[in-house]
Amino acid sequence: MEQYQANNNLPQQQEPEEKVDIMSIVFKILSHWHYFAISVVLTLLLAFVFNKYSVPIYEVKSTVLVKDEKKGAGMNGGDLLQGLDLFGSQKNVQNEIGILQSYSLTNKAIKQLNFYVSYFVESKFKTEELYKENPFEVALDTSFNQLVGVQISVKILSSDKYELEIPEQSDVTVFNYREEKALEDKVDIHKVIKTLYFGETYKDENLNFKILLTPKYKGKDTNGKIFLFTINDLTQITSQFNSSKIEPINKEATVLAVMVKNRNKQKAIDFINALTEAYINSDLEEKNLIATNTVGFIDGQLSGITDSLHIVESQLQNFRTANKIMNISDEARVVSDKVADLDKEKAIESVKSRYYKYLTDYFATNSTVKSDIIAPSTMGIEDPLLAKLVENLITFSSEKEKLKISSTSNNPLITAIDSKIENTKRFLIENVKNIVNISNISIKELDKRIATVQVELNKLPATERNLINIERKFKINDQIYTFLLQKRAESAIAKASNVADNKIIDKARSAEKVYPKTTLNYIIAFILGIFIPLIYLFIKDFMNNTIVEKSDIEKISTFPIIGHIIHSDRESNTVVQDSPKSSIAESFRAVRTNLQFIGKGKEKQTFLVTSTMVSEGKTFVSINLASIFALYGKKTLLMGFDLRKPKIYQDFALTNTEGISSYLIGKSKLEDIIQKSFIPNLDIIMAGPIPPNPSELIASERNDELFAKLQLMYDYIIIDTPPVGLITDAFLLMKYTDANVYVTRQNYTNKKVFKSIITDIEKRNVGKFNLLVNDVRLDRDSTGYGYGSGYGYGYGYGYGYGYGYGYGYYSDDNTKIKKKSFLKKIKKF
Fold first, then answer.
1. Alpha-carbon gap, residue 274 to 261, rounded angstroms
2. How far is residue 259's CA from residue 272's CA, in Å, rounded to a whole number?
3. What DSSP state is assigned to residue 350?
4. In this predicted model, what pLDDT tens digit does every residue of 674-695 receive, in sequence order?
5. How far apart, in Å, do the first and last CA atoms of the chain sit?
6. How far is CA 444 from the centre of its chain?
7. Spatial CB neighbours of 828, under 8 Å, sequence gap ≥ 6
């Protein structure tokens, strides 16, 4: 006793630093393996359902080469023959990306692919889009306003007819395909169910179409199925496809990767290819624009010359026939050649004059300059300044158009280009005026020279003179006609031989599914299946403020743990007497042995049993601890000192009319309050009637006399007391005890309350305390106290004794802990 007291008087050791018990964590995870199995199965199942019934999204990619530089100078015949690539400019890759992402280019591709109608087929869990697999097609009358965004149902009845169903719907948009815009006023539609023949036109105030079968119609296999189609708002579907992603393949490259996502892989492939082709064609059209305008301008001039040439040719033939003259004299030929040369010069000058008039009219009628101006070299005009000014205008205009695609009109770059265009335009108009003046002077000079030759011509005979005049008109028209034909041919050849600067490197051929990512979803589901139970267990442990493991006690108290009592499923509290060969009885034997070592072999000992709060099992421990001492052959007494709430008498089927309270007030004698139990060697003193002053009775001298007598009569006395955390009765009784048993209950005793009381007890050194853990569960489904099914656990406290238990060893373990079925585990989970 003295040594034990000395040990208790030692300074309290500093609480050891908390360490992570890896094995404890691993064991806890393994002991709840079914949580993880169920969680993983459920998350993988959810991933499977998500992957199966999500509408997939595919991404397709095409690559386009954007030439960074165009080379060319002025415009002449040689340049024309090399493709009319007249004006050098540094190509901005970002501008080309803007062009590829422009609404106008996307709209052109949408129209080319005829994406006016979308087709679908219904399945049990989702609606799939059909593209090039639809058994019918809708022929829209785009000159008629159509309802858009309404899912119209088609049930094919046979190869001849079908059932059309239009659902009732409010606020439906009507789209005008001619102007490519939705009408402001929306309409309400009523439900329509109608049987029609294929090829028959369906028409109402908001719809006009007919349905035709396609080669994908499979007869009886298709009949009875329900298909859907939706007429698309052209602006909306253009905007939908206009979200394509375009970026250079690396920072230095001018090769662009063009990507788009869509629910239908073939539709996405066709769109990307149509978009890139439209881009290449638009680039080629821009290059051909000057040549096209030049050909148009020349054709306009040729139309008038051709008529004049035909008239003069007829006059010449008729004159020769009428006058029977085919050739003229040599003198007349000389005069005729002089006039012809002068007329040729005047004709060419006249053509140039018409070009100057074209430029003057162009600037007069066009408020904005476009890149379709006819270059002066096309008409044989070799004025360097004029050519440079026209070239600059075309360059500035092209740059402005490209900037407008990717920015607003408030962009400072566009403002700067507008300033350049206005300045260049002003200089060009002044230059044209000067050139026109010079041209007019040249024409007047030619007229004077022609008039001089005309004097000589008038001296010739009338017949020859008339013939020369007619030939003169013919040659003038013929020379102009030949000149224009030559320029037209040069422009046509240049246009035919022209190629786009940009080109498609790789067309889209296959699609990659980007949503849902099947493998990734399964990986995420598996990880979630692992982490959800982990988080659950962590939160459960974090929120659990009760004693669960041995370490929970060791972190709070330095008192020794003398044992643990296994969980009992039996209804009776006298488990040691009822099942002496059970594992629970053996756990009490181990506690008995440790208590005997604490008493250092004393023949007579007194033990007090208390706890933190009610329902921790102190009475259960007191009854069975007294029973195990009695079964050991020792004369044992169990005292019910819970005077406020007596209940031991119920477990032994005895009376509580007399007991400790009646003895302490002098109403009963000692021999009257001692009752024999059905357990050999075990006597019991009940608490007796509930007194109004229990603490005063316990502290009385009569209680000292009581214990003095009883400790002489019995080998072992077990005192059942009220919870020490609630009242002080237990502290008053500790002066009679050799050791005190403090009962804690697994998954029940509050750590904070336990710590508060134990810390106070340790500081005040009020008793010789030993800790006992009650209601320890050994099954894997319990939150373990360091135990598991079949897992041994031993204690050693310096007394040279240890013990361990395993189920299936003791014959009285009739109610063995069985592993729960998988279904029960699911229900518990």
1. 15
2. 7
3. H
4. 999 999 999 999 999 999 989 9
5. 50
6. 79
7. 781, 820
